[in-house]
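Researcher: Structure for this, please.
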Amino acid sequence: MKDFSRREFLGIGAAATAGILLTGCGGSGEEAVDLNLPPLLDIAPAGAPIRAALVGCGGRGTGAALNFLDAGPDLQIVAVADVFQDRIDDCLKKLKEEKGVEIPASMQFAGFDGFKHALDANIELVILATPPHFRPEHFAAAVAAKKHVFMEKPVAVDPAGARSIIASSRRAESLGLCVGTGTQRRHQRDYVETYRRVRQGAIGDIVAANCYWNQSQLWYKTQQPEWSEMEYMIRDWVNWCWLSGDHIVEQHIHNIDVVNWFTGKHPVAAVGFGARHRRVTGDQFDFFDIDFTYENDVHVHSMCRQINGCVNNVSELIRGTKGYTNCQNTIYDMEGNIVWQYEYPKNEQGESTDVVAISPYVQEHIDLVTAIRTGKQVVEAEATAISTLSAIIGRMSAYTGQEITWEAAMSNEMRLGPEDYHMGAVAVEKNVPVPGSLT
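Model: Predicted structure, token format:
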């Protein structure tokens, strides 16, 4: 499939998001299909074995591999790849301890080109869980190799990467491939049921929203004498913008994605601010506060922070003309009275467990495997790229102190990171951004 221009990209933004959301508004299973909701089975159906490779053997990659193995019968991890052999070793230890999985040395691929060797293995699916900077290249290669894909969010760290993801997503669609992403709230049963009711009109027309990911300091690594600058940055990746996109992109995308999902839209502009006060390593901010403007002058307040000793909040709130919702499990009328709540499974004492029956981290793999084995294609990459881009324009505004429009971001040639990868010095900007001094 051909690459598309920025003008074509701008045109698909709202259409891509809306296209995965709208057409029906009923409560039965048949009507749920009209909303393109996942089937939410407890386990994927039986079928031909699916052999998978894991690219990115850190904590989330290892977790994703275990979640995949829990999704249904005849699912296998047969190859692994990571820049560092010690990360491969740690991953394989956990896979063996928890699932009895053993992978021979011939199917372990260390180094920057390890993903290429993994894709050459006899596999049907690849799990992409490296730092997000590498996602566009790895996804393009996976689609070219005609593999089904599960990839973690975010799917890019810059506009160039986002455009690449959408181009690859369109190719995946044309090839009949299935692609899942790590936006697990779209597969979490309480969120899905709340979403369905909102799309039915339970809160009326959406007029405003808030989303938050405020938590304590995240992990970090300190430089070791034996590490090159590249090795250090990758091991400390969650603190460097070129590798993670900053935490508004890497983490807060979950909440921004919920707002995009429930509204069926993406922001048209962002004005925000942020700063760095306590962070120990890297070049990122400690907090962001963004005013996103959506179509029809709907405003969304976005806030995220990673600082110890502060009040925490990870949530979403969407207001409509008839009421409001926390997006997860409760709908209120305009006076704050509860008009509906999700009913969770009960324990042996008949008390609510307050958790969904299937972990959303497993559910997203169940839904992907189900799509592959039933032939009902699912490709989530484009919607996740749009939510990634939404977070990126918030970051760009906070870094520069300027309003950033969706169109301006999409015409931006920004590509973060070095041109080539080797274990030495890294030719990237390392200074913390100063708002008002950048464009």
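Researcher: Any notable elements?
Model: The chain has a mean pLDDT of 93. Residues 417 and 428 are 6 Å apart (CA to CA).
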